[in-house]
Amino acid sequence: MAEREMLCGKCGCPLEPRRVDFEYLGHVFFADAPRCPKCGEVYLSEELVRGRVAEVEMELENK
Amino acid sequence: MSGGPLERWVLADTGCKDRAALEAWQMARLRETVVYAREKSRFYAELLRGVDPSCLRARADLPLLPLTTAEQLRARGGDWLCCAASRVGRIVTLKTSGTTAEPKRVFFTESDLERTVDFFTHGMRELIAPGERVGILMPSEQPGSVGDLLARGLARIPAEAVKLGPVTDVAATYRALREAGCGCAVGIPVQVLGLACYGAALPEPERLRLRSVLLSADAAHPALVKRVGALLGCPVFTHFGMTELGYGGAVECAAHRGCHVRENDLLVEVIDPETGAPLPPGQRGELVFTTLRREAMPFLRYRSGDLGVLRTERCGCGSRLARVVPEGGRAARTDERLSLWELDGAIFSCDGAVDFCARAEGEALYLTVFGLEPPDKGALRAALLASGAARGLRVELECRTLRGFSGTGMDKRALTKGGGRET
Fold first, then answer.
1. Does B78 contact chain A (CB < 8 Å)?
2. Which of B76, B251, B275, B382, CA to CA, is 20 to 30 A from B69?
3. Above 60 in pLDDT, residue B423?
4. CA-nearest residue of chain A to B166?
């Protein structure tokens, strides 16, 4: 089944996959995530948050 | 009560004038914490169902509360949280090295971290004077790291923090401490021992002039403490803490008879590690902690996994704050035949020994001891024999040159089991 297109709730524009930079504890890392080309809002899926983001967070959260 | 800076701070913070008032104050905070945790946290709502906080009047009532464990924290840490995610200022993740077990994640609000900073300010006054320069040999780059919080605490004394991070290159760190003019160093026991051995081999004019040293983050056997003090020529203080407690737990005073607990934030007990039954002061058992004012993640009767003794009589410094004397190492043994604490006592009593790793397999103890030069095998064998620490196992001993300390050094050392490592 093809992935459904995601639309920005504010602008109505289709979200486009983009590199998104995350900053945490003074470090920057990135991941690809759907982003509105108009307002810049990013959609963070549960898979992304519980996967890559959580993984990097925990690596950075040492004592 | 008329002890040192830490006691004065605890009394001022709580408004208590004596021990009896302090204990009543602690029980009042405990009742509040139970109500708070049960209301805010899914985990505690289940755990504390059926507990009537009004029955918690004195320390003898503590067993009315169930004990909590690291395993529960690993399995359900998110459910321990008592505040909105937006109020969390810092999370610390503790992985268990060598296993695939879930990590422990501990959550703090800014207010929780501030209490730690406050403890560090007053606790460090037990060993340094205003104007001192302190080398911090622990992770300190990240905001909210133990070294960062310590630096913030030192600034209020005021004292200057020199953030050097954990030791990876002994010579470089020693030089950095000396060039920075540090009069105090705070570090991990085996790493500080490595620095001390290095310095003792230098000509006198090139040596550090430390006025005090604080050992933290891992157990410091008295044999190690004694060698560090002799090699560095300064008093050695120990600190007992855990991330779960907000890093800071208890710190030694100049009497060196145990670590004074920050009793305005923590309530300490000792239990029989087998049965969970409370033990009286003076008897060795597992140290159990309860936090009294934590916002993000309170800990109620949390089993530390560390053995020790609680002392409640007046200390030589005059303080009536309870003291923990860590003793005996970890309650759970990787191998029932061996005690890391006993091995520490034997190995660290030997000149030249800085660190070691050990595992028991069959009837043999495979032991590798590291030094700035390979330590003397004969002395090590004699120490192991005299102490009985090898428990009759055949000792396969290797001695090697230390090439640096692994990782951040913040993992508590543990005996390896087969190919893995448990803590």
1. no
2. B251
3. no
4. A63
Burial B325-353 (b: 16+ CB within 10 A, else e): bbbbbbbebbbeebbbbbbbbbbbbbebb
Percent over 70 (pLDDT), chain B: 95
ipTM: 0.79
Lowest-pLDDT range, A24-33, B156-165, B372-381?
A: A24-33
Query: Given a cut of 60, is residue B422 above it in pLDDT?
Result: no
Per-residue model confidence (pLDDT) at position B407: 55
CB contact under 8 A, B247 and A58: no
Which tokens is B356 given? 């070691």
Check whether domain B340-421 has CATH 3.30.300, yes or no: yes
Tens digit of pLDDT for each residue in B6-18?
999 999 999 999 8
Considering the segment(s) B128-234 as one domain, its CATH architecture is 3-Layer(aba) Sandwich (3.40)
Domains B5-114+241-330 and B128-234 equal at CATH topology level: yes
Which of B94, B95, B142 is opposite residue A26, by nearest beta carbon? B142
Which residue among A59, A60, A62 sits closest to B410, beta carbon to beta carbon?
Answer: A62
Cβ(B40)–Cβ(B109) under 8 Å? no
Domains of chain B, by residue range, sit at 5-114+241-330, 128-234, 340-421
Of the candidates B12, B24, B36, B28, the residue with the CA atom closest to the CA atom of residue B294? B36
| Domain coverage including residue A41 | 16-60
